[in-house]
Structures are given as structure tokens and as C-alpha cells.
Write a structure and sequence with these properties.
- By secondary structure, the protein is mainly alpha-helical.
- The protein has 18 helices and no strands.
- Helix 5 crosses helix 6.
- The radius of gyration is 22 Å and the shape is globular.
Length: about 425
Amino acid sequence: MPPLVLFGLAAVLLWSLVSRRFERWGVAGPAMLLVLGAATTVWDLTSYGAALDAPLTEKIVEVILSLLLFADATEVRGGIFGGEGRITARLVLIALPLSLLLTAIASVLLIPDSFVVIGVIACVVMPTDFAPAARLLRTKRLPERIRAILNVESGYNDGLVSPIFGMALPIAVVLAPVWHEAVATGSDSVTITDKELDHNGEKMAEAFLNAVPATLWAIAIGVVLGGLIGLILRIARDRGVASEGGARYAMLLLPLIAYGIATIPAIEANGFVAAFVAGLMYRVARTRGMEVRVIPHAELLLVEEVGTLTANFVWFMLGGAALLAFTESFDWRVLVLALLALTLLRLGPVYLSLMGSSVGRGDRVRIGLLGPRGTATIVFGLLAYNALPDDEGNLVLLVMVVTVVGSILLHGVAAPLVLRRLAPGARAGESAAAAH
């Protein structure tokens, strides 16, 4: 077993043994696992960098993300867009694309060297995940409706970003050598021959065109597989053929099978999209005819726990990645970009997309500012680091690390404190309750 995997498993095991006590002290699992990851890899960053850049690591994080995307899709309540369908649709179909576009523009304006990977950077920093700020979804200082909207949105936007990332990454891989040649020879004396230009143009077009059918195939696989298994399981449960345990196993195996079928060499579809769509269709088929369209928690339990376990491993990997990124280089412009991505580049599109809706001004601001970055950002960043040349890979890794660490501080530490100060009545009520 590779040392990286072994150390990661040991770190997750250690955290599992002490997590309850630390969480009572306000220490979140992601933050502690990040520290453990850094402490474990600081002694040999060179070996860790090589392990992070290995094909095995790429496959591990791909499978983990597929499982998490499936879990996110199955946990949403209600129809396709959950109980807040119109609001969620505005957020993921208007605010998210606009945020991606603005982030790409900000990337190239702040860091001209990022031109080749602006699409990749946008896909890396924009998906939201409440793992580093789980307390935000539990706090009563946020209206229940806002918590529900944020929860549903976070379950969808990383799945919708996946196909865009699947297109942006291969295009960046193809463009990188051309960009390096142009920079090396100077803007006034680019020596790329017409033959080389045509060849790279063809490769870029091929990468884009291949990504489109790969996404369509993935959608088809997810629809058929998720819908079929959801229908079969609903009938089997209604007739007493399948147990709760059998349903749990089916839910755990379904995203792995969807990902596996999608990535067969003869198909070469997007495994992330296949797993995500399978989760959507499974939930729709499984809950059809139910008064409350929610998969029973007893059936969700296993995929939730395995998802949490694998996500913990990803947070451990972030610790070493953070050391690697900061020792390679640091650019203050990356910090500015990360701060913008965590604040204005999300807040503006969210606020605009919800204008004219039933969400008030104050709640639009809350939704816009409360968008933590977590597991999906880490996985996309690691995949980009693995696939891209050194310069571009290191840049994306640094942007990913600064964004996630910034999100831990902003959403995991600062936001709960601000909400507590903004709700003195709630704090007084808690004190009175404690006194009794």
C-alpha cells in the first residue's frame, strides 16, 4: 500500500477516535485533518508531491468525488430541484454560470500567467460544500428556509460544474505547451509553425468535442442506471423483497458502478456526471408516489457515512498539498483572487439571480456570503495538479489551497461568530435556557 494512503487511513482513524471531544470544543474535522496531513508529510514533501501526482491518486480522488456527488444528489428533498425549486434553479442555472465567468475574467486580469487555466481555476474555486462549516447548517441563527436553500444548492453546483471542468481541463492541457512556447519566444517573435499551430488547434478542438459526447453518454448512463435501480428498489421495498440493509448496499454500489461503466475505455464518458445523474434519477424513481419525497434515512445512512469517511481522507491530502503549494511559490495576487471568489464573485451573481424572487435583500446577502468551499474544490484542484504541466499545476494547486483555507477561516470561524453577534436575542435566550 502506498505510504500516502496508509498515513491517510491512520489519520482518519485517529480523528475518528477523538472527534466527539474536539467537535465539542468547536474544532471541525476538516481543520484537524488538514493539520494532521501537514504534520505527516512535512518530513518528505518531495515524495508526497510525487505520490500526489501519481495515476493511483487521480483514480482515488475521482472515485471519492463520484461517491460524494451521488450522495449529494440523493439527499435533496422534493423534486429535481428540491423543496425550493425556483430559487435553486436561479442559483445553479444563473448565479453559478455567472460566477464562473466572472472568476475566469478576474483570474486573467489578476494573474496573466493563468490565461491557459482560467476555466480550470473557475471550476475549482466555485463549487460550495458545507463540510468546513457544518455548524452554519445547524445554527438556529439562520432562518430554516435559508439553511434549506444553501443545503440544496451545495448538493447541486459541484455536479453541474463537473462537465465544465471535464471540458476545461483537457483544453488547458493542450494549450499549455503552446502558451509556454509563446512566452519563451516573446510576444513579438512567436516561433510556432503553422503545422504546430494546426496540430494544437486540432487537439484542442478534439478535446472539446470529445467532452460533449462524454457528458451526453454520462447523462444517459446515469439516467438509465439510476432510474432503473431506483424503480426496482422501490418495488422490492414495497413488496418486502429487499431489506433496509440491501437498500443501503445498493445505494453505495450504484455510484461506483455508474462511474465504472462511464469510464470504460470503449465509452470514456464523464464518471462524475454519470454518478451525479444516477443519484438524481435514483432519488426521483425511489421516492415516486411517496407523500414526502425523501429517501428514508435508514437507506441513506451507509452512503452518508462512507462519503464522510472518504471526504475525511481528502481533507488529510489537503494538508500535504498546502505545504507543497506554499513551499513552491506564493503570489499575493492568488490571495486576492481567493478572497474575491469567496465574497464578491459569488455574492454579486447570487444577489442578481434572486432579484424579483421571494427571497428578501438580507437573505440574498446571507446566501451569497455563506458559500463554503470544501471537498469538491480540493478534488478538482488535485485532478488539475495531476494532469497539468508543472507551472500550471502548481498555480491551480495554490489557488485551491488558499481558497479552501480561506473558506475554513471565513465560513468555519468568522461566520458563526458574526451570526452570534448579530443575534443577541438568541444568545440571551440560550443563556436563560442554560440557567434553568
